[in-house]
UniProtKB/TrEMBL annotation:
The gene is hflX. Transmembrane segments: none annotated. It holds the Pfam family GTP-bdg_N. This is GTPase HflX. InterPro entries: EFG_III/V, G_HFLX_dom, GTP-bd, GTP-bd_M, GTPase_HflX, GTPase_HflX_N, GTPase_HflX_N_sf, P-loop_NTPase. GTPase that associates with the 50S ribosomal subunit and may have a role during protein synthesis or ribosome biogenesis. It comes from the Bacteria. It comes from Kistimonas scapharcae. HAMAP family: GTPase_HflX. Monomer. Associates with the 50S ribosomal subunit. Belongs to the TRAFAC class OBG-HflX-like GTPase superfamily. HflX GTPase family. Residues 199-366 form the Hflx-type G domain. Keywords: Cytoplasm, GTP-binding, Magnesium, Metal-binding, Nucleotide-binding. It is found in: Cytoplasm.
Length: 431
C-alpha cells in the first residue's frame, strides 16, 4: 500500500484537545482504546485546553514545546493527535518535533489496515488511505517540489511530485473499478436472496459493542471477536435458523465510531450496503458504556449517511452481565411490538428473546398451533423440523403425529399450500 503505516511496538505521545464545542468533542478514553488497538505503546498523555486553534501548529507555541520535551524524554517514535489535522499542520508539526505526526483519521486508517483480511477489505482500506494521502503527498517530496532548469537538469516535463500524484490517481481509479465489480457481485447475491425469500438481518452498532460475539453465538461461528476497537472489518454472512421463523441471513458488519472519517464511509459503502439493504437491523448497544447515548446518536448519523435510517430496527442492549440487577427481557412499544432486547451475548443470556423478537418483527403475526399430520405427510414433518419451528410432538388416538408448532402465519399458510393442504383443516387448536 502507498500509505506508510507504522508497525506495532512503537512508543507514542498522545495529544488530546479539549474542545468546548460539544459537536467536535472527542472521548479521551476512546482515544486510548484506539491507540491500544493499533498496537502502539502510550509513552505520555497530554491534554490541550480548548480555545483558538493555531492554523500553523494546531497547538500554541508553549504546548508545542511541551510536546517536544515529552518526545525527547520518552524517545517517542510518533505523536498522535485525537483530532483531525490539516496537511500543513501535520507537516509543520513534524518539522518542529522531528518525528512522525498522525491525526485521528490516520490512526483509524492504520487500524483498518491491520485488521483487513479479505481482498475486498484490503481494497477498501487502500482506497481510503490513498484518498487521505493525496492531500499529504508533498511530505517526503519537498526536495523535488520545483523542477530545476539548466543543462543536464531538465526533466521529462513533470516533477516527481506530479508523477506521484498521477500514479495515485491511476491507482485510485483502478481500485474504484474493482470495487464496482465487487458491488455488482453483491447486488447479484442480494437479488438471489430476495428471489429465495430469505430475509437479511444485519448487525450494526458502535465499535466494541459486542456485535461479533452475538454473531458467533447466534450462528455458532468463530468470527474474530476481541475487546478492542474495530475487531471486525470484513462483512461476514451466515444462513441460520431462527426459532419461530425459519431461515434468515445474518450479517456482521464493521463497527461505527464518532466522527468516522468520511473517506472511510465512502470507501466502505459497498460493505455498509449490506446494512442498507437489510430487512431488519439489529442495533447492538453496549448497555454498560457511560457514553451509551452518544454512541447511539453516532450510529444513527452513519445509518442516515448510508440511507438505512428508516429500516425496521431492533435495539439489542448487550453486556447486561456488567449491570447488577438487570435480567434479560424485552421492551415493547405501544403497539406491543419488540423495541429493545436486553441480553448478554458473552454469557448466553437472553438469546432466545432475540430469536422471538426477530421472528415477530420479520413475520408480524406469529401463531402457536397444533397440526395433525397423516402418515403420508412425512415430507411436511421433515420441513417443519428443518425450520426449527416444532415445539413438541405427540400422537393422537389414531397414532398419527400431532405437532406443536410456533411460526409466522404467512409462512405456515405458504408451506401448507405448497403441500396441497388446506390450512384450516389441519389446525386443531390455537393460542
Amino acid at each position: 500500500m502507498f500509505f506508510e503505516r507504522h508497525e506495532g511496538g512503537e512508543k507514542a505521545v498522545l495529544v488530546h484537545p479539549e474542545c468546548y464545542n460539544e459537536q467536535d468533542r472527542e472521548d479521551p478514553s476512546e482515544f486510548r482504546e484506539l491507540v491500544r488497538s493499533s498496537g502502539v505503546e502510550e509513552a505520555a498523555f497530554l491534554t490541550v485546553p480548548g480555545g483558538n486553534i493555531s492554523p500553523r501548529y494546531f497547538v500554541g507555541i508553549g504546548k508545542l514545546e511541551e510536546i517536544r520535551q515529552y518526545v525527547i524524554a520518552t524517545e517517542a517514535d510518533v505523536v498522535l493527535f485525537n483530532h483531525a489535522l490539516s496537511p500543513s499542520q501535520e507537516r509543520n508539526l513534524e518539522r518542529e518535533l522531528k518525528c512522525r505526526v498522525v491525526d485521528r483519521t490516520g490512526l483509524i486508517l492504520d487500524i483498518f489496515a491491520q485488521r483487513a483480511r479479505t481482498h475486498e477489505g484490503k481494497l477498501q482500506v487502500e482506497l481510503a488511505q490513498l484518498e487521505y494521502m493525496s492531500t499529504r503527498l508533498v511530505r517526503g517530496w519537498t526536495h523535488l517540489e520545483r523542477q530545476k532548469g539548466g543543462i543536464g537538469l531538465r526533466g521529462p516535463g513533470e516533477t516527481q511530485l506530479e508523477t506521484d500524484r498521477r500514479l495515485l490517481r491511476a491507482r485510485i481509479k483502478s481500485i474504484h473499478r474493482r470495487l464496482e465489480k465487487v458491488k455488482s457481485q453483491r447486488d447479484q447475491s442480494r437479488r438471489s436472496r430476495k428471489r429465495a425469500e430469505i430475509p437479511l438481518v444485519s448487525l450494526v452498532g458502535y465499535t466494541n459493542a459486542g456485535k461479533s460475539t452475538l454473531f458467533n453465538v447466534l450462528t455458532e461461528s468463530d468470527v474474530y471477536a476481541a475487546d478492542q476497537l474495530f475487531a471486525t472489518l470484513d462483512p461476514t454472512l451466515r444462513k441460520i435458523q431462527m426459532t419461530d421463523f425459519g431461515s434468515v441471513i445474518l450479517a456482521d458488519t464493521v463497527g461505527f465510531i464518532r466522527h468516522l472519517p468520511h473517506k472511510l464511509v465512502q470507501a466502505f459503502r459497498a460493505t455498509l450496503e449490506e446494512s442498507a439493504g437489510a430487512d431488519l437491523l439489529l442495533h447492538v448497544i453496549d448497555s454498560h458504556d457511560p457514553e451509551r447515548q452518544e454512541n447511539i446518536d453516532q450510529v444513527a448519523l452513519v445509518l442516515e449517511e448510508i440511507d438505512a435510517h428508516e429500516l425496521p430496527r431492533l435495539d439489542v442492549y448487550n453486556k447486561i452481565d456488567l449491570m447488577p440487577g438487570v435480567e434479560p427481557h424485552i421492551d415493547r412499544d405501544e403497539h406491543g411490538r419488540p423495541r429493545r432486547v436486553w441480553i448478554s451475548a458473552m454469557n448466553n443470556q437472553g438469546l432466545e428473546l432475540v430469536h422471538h423478537a426477530v421472528a415477530e418483527l420479520l413475520a408480524g403475526d406469529i401463531v402457536h398451533e397444533y397440526l395433525s399430520l397423516g402418515f403420508n405427510n412425512g415430507r411436511l414433518r421433515a420441513r417443519l423440523y428443518a425450520m426449527g419451528v416444532v415445539q413438541s410432538e405427540a400422537y393422537d388416538d389414531n397414532g398419527q403425529p400431532l405437532l406443536e408448532i410456533r411460526m409466522p402465519r404467512d409462512e405456515l399458510v405458504r408451506l401448507l399450500n405448497q403441500e396441497g393442504m388446506d390450512a384450516s383443516a389441519y389446525v386443531l387448536e390455537q393460542d
